[in-house]
Amino acid sequence: MKLRKSLPILGCAAMLMTAAPVYAQEKLTVLLDWFINPDHAPLIVAEQIGAFKDAGLDVEIIQPSDPSMPPRLVAAGQGDIAISYQPQLYMLAQEQLPVKRVATLVDQPLNVLATVEGKGITSLEDLKGKKVGFSVSGVEEATLGGMLSSAGLSLDDVEMVNVNFQLVAGLLTGQVDAVIGGYRNFEATEIREQGATPIIFPVEEHGTPMYDELIVLSAADKSDDPKIKAFVAALKKGTEYLRAHPQETWERFIKDYPDMNTDLYKTAWIDTLPFFANDPGKLDVERYEAYGAFLKEHKLIGEDVNVMDYAVETE
């Protein structure tokens, strides 16, 4: 597996030069789901404030070149933590991949169905006969199907168009009338920056059960490892500090990642704050079961997934 970039540990060298005495810390590798961005802010801030170091951890954050690989690498012992998605967890369970959800980063959906003013779409009923862009088949189609069902429609009433991750471009150029799979904290802002007015339909308000957008996975046999518990505790401290000091943490973030210093990412940094889990280790079993039933109903999984086999609460 070729990794695109191993991210620097923020301020680590400077701290090691000044700290005395120096104690050995446990190495812990975090494989991201995507390139570093504001959705990962609690991780970044936990590193900024030394929460990982205080927990006895030497954390390395890695961006993979293939976003589908982190859970598989962790299952194979080639990483300690993978950032993933709750919907993907059920697919991994169907494959019997030995991973477990040990924490949550974003505990609400970010996914929305989006369109823009001028398309004649002000309600889901208006999607009948329209083209809807998507990037990833499977979960996005099931999500759209659930939304349409809540409005008395079905997937047969729309034309699905694969826009290959060009959601905003596809929408604004007229290739499609609406898109599913965009994030409310990114694509909605990007649409505004392009001079259009977005109209969004949050998935959880229209036929899709609540779910965690971003979750933290470990190998199944490592889910109760003390260093995993230490990581989750430090992540909570990062979230708390981030919420209390959004501007300070943003300024430190763009100092370390200057290519992120844009209006889009600055807005996302603030807009994402309400969506981070207050207690990352907490597990809502009933909610996980309800989302699994939704996926089964839409034939994305063939059998019930026992949540407790693939998710644990971390205290």
UniProtKB/TrEMBL annotation:
**Gene3D superfamilies tied to this protein:** Periplasmic binding protein-like II (3.40.190.10)
The answer to whether keyword rRNA processing applies is no
| InterPro entries documented for this protein | NMT1/THI5, SsuA/THI5
Kindly state which keywords UniProt assigns to this record, in alphabetical order.
Answer: Signal
Q: Which residues form the signal peptide?
A: 1-24
For this entry, list what GO says about its biological process.
thiamine biosynthetic process
Cite the SsuA/THI5-like domain residue spans from the record: 37-248
Which Pfam families does the UniProt entry name for this protein?
A: NMT1
What protein name does the entry list?
Answer: Thiamine biosynthesis protein
Organism of this sequence: Paenirhodobacter populi
